[in-house]
Amino acid sequence: MRAEKGFFAGAGIGLTSIFTILLVLILSVFSTLSLFTARADERLSRANADAVSAYYAADAQACRIEADFARSGEAEREETIPMTEIQSLRIRLRRASDGSVERLEWSTVRTEESGEAGALPVWGGTGLPGAQRAAGKETANGRKP
Questions:
Q1: How many CA within 13 A on the CB side of residue 25?
Q2: Which of the 8 DSSP states describes residue 98?
Q3: pLDDT higher for 112 or 55?
């Protein structure tokens, strides 16, 4: 004998299919987001590794310059060693009265030409539309005072 069919008797297979499709869709979206996040993290890690490698290469060169300075008879020496397009390692060395070498500066600095190219347009405090009104030439409604 056949069991009686109710209103929800055939909905079991349909609901399961809908839940399965939604689950696959949600998992696909999460996997895509995970892939994009992993790629972004890889790019950031590579950029960081390149910057660290460039710093240590410049640092090794600066140590060689310091050793050359210690052997020479110079009183003071300043060098700027390029690391990347926008950063350099700046060192300043001075010979102390006892003949030892003092490090006056050993720091990373932005290159001078990169500062202007990457500058943001910052408001300088002049040229506001209401500046003439504030100076007394006219009021907010356009009338002379």
A1: 6
A2: T
A3: 55
